[in-house]
Specification:
2 domains, two-stranded parallel ribbon
């Protein structure tokens, strides 16, 4: 019999948290150890962030918990990803009536989430694309770095998408839901089949490019853009894909790009204007990002390492 998420007791979650804890895990982040053990993308992003010198903190530098968007500079400057002690909150709640509560009791009210996966992916991308600048805000304010900023956001989106696709089972799903912004996995079957056929690196690259194009206000991926992305694949020759699979890739990647356009534009405007750019972000981001990638051959190494970080 399949267990429904509502039937899972909070006592079981508390027990799993302790069983899955390890040196690379954050005990006070609810579900962290379970996700690190069972979700390969969650684990790869964590390992990649740590390998690049980023850590994690229960402190709140830059008032991150009040306004995460405007605190990204501080996260990158301090090289510390903040998270809440939401596991301790769940333990305190469970102790009020041991063994009584289940996940069904938390459908409308639950501990506040943590987004260490998303912020860690930002950290990995920033390290590869910007290095270790003395002044993070100044680096992000450089007009020539717009592509790099949008690549960082696309990378965080890609990491969350693949991690969401790896979720299986109600406990995994609930833990992931309290650790990620993403709750939908469009085109999961098609992307999975194409990944099996052509390998993780190529499909990770194409998903990254789809999210990048979306950040430049492209709503669907045209065939000519897919073909250009295949030509610019930094890890080898990707021109042997038959037309039927290219069409399937275009459909699947376009499905991934569906999101609330007002939210995307407003979020982009806030972040870019905070770093000195004009309010008309559609004008600011009017260039074709693949042109910019091709014009900057030095990006091949960082892009290769970013793709590998989600595959190895």
């Amino acid at each position: 019999m399949t267990t429904r998420s509502g039937d899972i007791s909070l006592a079981e979650l508390v027990s799993l948290q302790r069983q899955c804890h390890g040196s690379a895990c954050l005990l006070q982040n609810l579900g962290d150890g379970f996700l690190y053990r069972t979700n390969p993308f969650y684990r790869r992003v964590r390992d990649a962030a740590r390998a690049r010198g980023f850590g994690f903190t229960l402190e709140d530098p830059g008032n991150y918990f009040a306004f995460p968007l405007v605190a990204l500079d501080t996260v990158l400057q301090t090289r510390k990803v903040p998270y809440r002690a939401n596991y301790a909150a769940l333990v305190a709640f469970e102790r009020t009536r041991p063994g009584f509560f289940t996940l069904a009791d938390l459908q409308k009210n639950r501990p506040l989430p943590n987004y260490v996966l998303h912020e860690s992916a930002h950290a990995v991308a920033f390290h590869e694309l910007f290095g270790r600048p003395r002044d993070v805000h100044a680096a992000l304010s450089d007009p020539s770095k717009l592509l790099h900023i949008e690549l960082g956001e696309a990378y965080a989106m890609a990491a969350e998408y693949f991690a969401a696709c790896a979720v299986s089972g109600p406990i995994h799903a609930w833990f992931f839901s309290i650790n990620s912004y993403r709750h939908r996995t469009p085109a999961k079957k098609a992307v999975g089949e194409l990944l099996t056929r052509y390998g993780s690196p190529l499909i990770v690259w194409l998903v990254l490019i789809a999210f990048l194009e979306n950040n430049f206000f492209v709503e669907r991926l045209p065939m000519k853009t897919l073909e250009r992305a295949l030509e610019l694949y930094p890890m080898g020759n990707a021109n042997g894909i038959p037309r039927r699979d290219r069409l399937r890739l275009c459909r699947a990647l376009s499905d991934l790009m569906v999101m609330d356009p007002e939210f995307r534009e407003d979020t982009t405007r806030l972040f870019l204007t905070m770093h000195g750019h004009r309010r008309n972000v559609r004008s600011v981001l009017s260039a074709e990002p693949l042109d910019s990638i091709e014009a900057e051959p030095r990006l091949k190494g960082p892009l290769t390492r970013l793709v590998r970080a989600l595959c190895d």
